[in-house]
Design goal:
homodimer, 496 residues, mainly alpha, Methane Monooxygenase Hydroxylase, Chain G, domain 1, Neurolysin, domain 3, 2% strand
Chain lengths: 496, 496
Amino acid sequence: MSVSVTAYDDLMAFQRETEALAQVMGRLGWDQETVMPRGAAQQRAEEMGALEGVLHRRRTDPRIGDWLAGIDAGALDDVGRAQLRHIRRSYQRATRLPDTLSAELARITSRAQGIWAEARAAGDVAHFLPTLAEVVRLKREEAAALAQGGDLYDALLDDYEPGATAAGLGAMFDRMRPRLVELRERVMGAATPPAALHGTFPAAGQMAVAHQIATHFGYDWRHGRLDHSVHPFTSGSGADVRITTRVDEAEPLGCLYSTLHEVGHGAYEQGIAPDYALSPLGNGVSMGVHESQSRIYENQLGRSRAFCGWLHGRMADTFGDAGAVGADAFYGAVNRVHAGYIRTEADEVHYNLHIMLRFDLERALIAGTLEVADLEEAWNTRFAHDFGVAVDTPAHGVLQDVHWSVGLFGYFPTYTLGNVYAGCLNLALRAAVPTLDADLARGDAGPATAWLRENVQRHGGLYEPAEVIERACGFAPHEGPLLDYLDAKFGALYGV
Amino acid sequence: MSVSVTAYDDLMAFQRETEALAQVMGRLGWDQETVMPRGAAQQRAEEMGALEGVLHRRRTDPRIGDWLAGIDAGALDDVGRAQLRHIRRSYQRATRLPDTLSAELARITSRAQGIWAEARAAGDVAHFLPTLAEVVRLKREEAAALAQGGDLYDALLDDYEPGATAAGLGAMFDRMRPRLVELRERVMGAATPPAALHGTFPAAGQMAVAHQIATHFGYDWRHGRLDHSVHPFTSGSGADVRITTRVDEAEPLGCLYSTLHEVGHGAYEQGIAPDYALSPLGNGVSMGVHESQSRIYENQLGRSRAFCGWLHGRMADTFGDAGAVGADAFYGAVNRVHAGYIRTEADEVHYNLHIMLRFDLERALIAGTLEVADLEEAWNTRFAHDFGVAVDTPAHGVLQDVHWSVGLFGYFPTYTLGNVYAGCLNLALRAAVPTLDADLARGDAGPATAWLRENVQRHGGLYEPAEVIERACGFAPHEGPLLDYLDAKFGALYGV
């Protein structure tokens, strides 16, 4: 065994323990949001802080640098080189940040989330602004340390979407926005829009249908489970990938489509080649690709007319007429476009407009061309322009999302990037599986999930994000397929 | 601030992180036994192994030795000195064990548990013996490393019950055994023994009554929860102390009294002074004292005639006549003495005889005076003598308990020590709270739990185990009160 192979093996063994400990952190997060006793929050923060300290020391351990220097990458196969690429990136990021900055960021953001929640509840933007200004100041410092002279926002974005740039995303968003605003206006002017569901839908019935949906989309219960939480999420990698959903007895579609969204995230993690488990390749490769899976499951597949036919049958079995007479009316209700302030409640037509607004504002904050003091006004002006209504209260505007309070700058655009990727994958999938709609109409998502597993999910972190989409689709990802899909679907549904 | 105080503060800050990480390990254990997806077992073992590695490195970190050497204990108060006593003991034990031995023990015992389970299922003692011999060999090595020339068994016992000795326990057990055998024979010869409950008791009803019992005994739901598991257990310290129980629809008393047993363990952890949280004083001081709390809740309080009157009412509310007509018959069913092979199903009269058998055998194995090859015969001979029946199959005999397969030698006697302590505490509690039976008859365990919290639970690890019992009772603990209690209770109930 050569010296370089020994260094590689040692590095990978060390990394495997780190990945296992990172999984433990994920378990604590799951526990906190689902089953933890209410009075345990403060102690839990300390438990997670202690584990975070362990992880930080491991991620900045100088032995990683020594091992990396001692490896002859030429002696490795593709998988080995991809592992090294991830480890090198992560080590470089971790060691470029001064410990004091990491600690200060952790301290401020853990406090800021509480202050943001207070400000949102009170509708008091001013209460949050000094803290937000502090977060922005520290994130700019972080970006400067990471960017080494490059673009500040790109340095933050790189943590969520390696290879993406603000310039590239900005140009794409600028191409998308006029078409989306135009589609929105057409749809909102339709003469006979579909109606929402009405009725009461007992929680047990919603969870039973949610279980059926997950099963039909191939979610693996031997390596997962479905629970309630306030905000739905997916947690864990490898052999233990759990999803959650929320339940509102007046509105069942939130539960069902949140489930299907998380099934997409979960199927991605469950679909990664088992050989990659507890290695840097054993997680979804980026937020954008992750979101492409949740979005294609939720929207292009789950909100299709074909699948809605099958789902309407399950709703009728469970809830009688389900508040929508007939499968067509149910399909309309599932895809109802409605003006709304809240990103997380937005339909497919509005959703990306919410993201572009945030992207432009946070990019300006990090660039220093927008002051925190001017943020609310900038938000409200832009919202009125893109959505045609005025923000009525800060909880419906600049205070609605938790992201900025916890330091997530550069994260928002990956949602729309995920939608764009989902549009591309949908095009390629339908070409590869001509029976798709007939399958979905029977509730059989097997061929769709098999294609996604084979072409996207199993690769984990093996390829760069854009590369995995291009390999699956046979073309470089772009916004066209998503916009065409939205035009066709909502034009037909709304008769506009 | 003096140098010694700085060393103390540094040591305690380091220790606090270790305690927080130990709590994380507890969360993983809870998760594994209650909610973990079945297919996640192998990955979970690796996650726990990685965390165990972190804990081991912290517990043997040479800085602990430096800090301990730098502290002037004379400058500390009682609490500080007690903290140091725990840290010093734990550091000494951890550093006396060679890393290779710890690793080998971890490897063998994790394998041995599976082999034991196979052997038990197949009734094949020979399948388990080579592995058990290996475990015994390693435990003797461990004991030799720890004992430094002292008694081998004492060195193992010390991990569970600091200050106890095999000689002292052995002498006490030898005093107890003739009286227990004699009581057992009297009771089993009774003319009209009480009858068991008959009927079907739906799981939801059992869990509802179990919740009521826990609530009436002061279990704090803000800092805990109750779930199902195959084997009931308590997990966690400080602000997050969870309990589990099991449910058999044909036999509700197992669920209810397992719950009350775990409520005793849980109340102890929840009752420790909050100042001690995440410090060495923030856990129950020993297995024996822990078991004293679970046993007095379960038996001296929970199986009393007074509390059974209240509980019979809840059973009747939930299940109709509850299979026992009248509170007296219910009290009889709760305290029914029955010959049985299985320790965990044993009544108060038989239970300690099960322990003494195991104590004598494991002490001989560690001393080297009994060979593993002769273990089954020794078990069966002793069982026939003490219980008056022959073991019919190894799963009912030498293969029934998991303990030895996972390396728990020196643990069994703490169960009976807990019973002895519970007997002492019951005597003192009844003297201090003359209204106890009237309170329990109303389902009010408040005065009892308040006395136990004040006199035992809140101290956590502040005093040595026997010392905390002596302080609570006003006399040195001994077996007399337990034996007198058993004689009086079962003599009256069985009319013998």
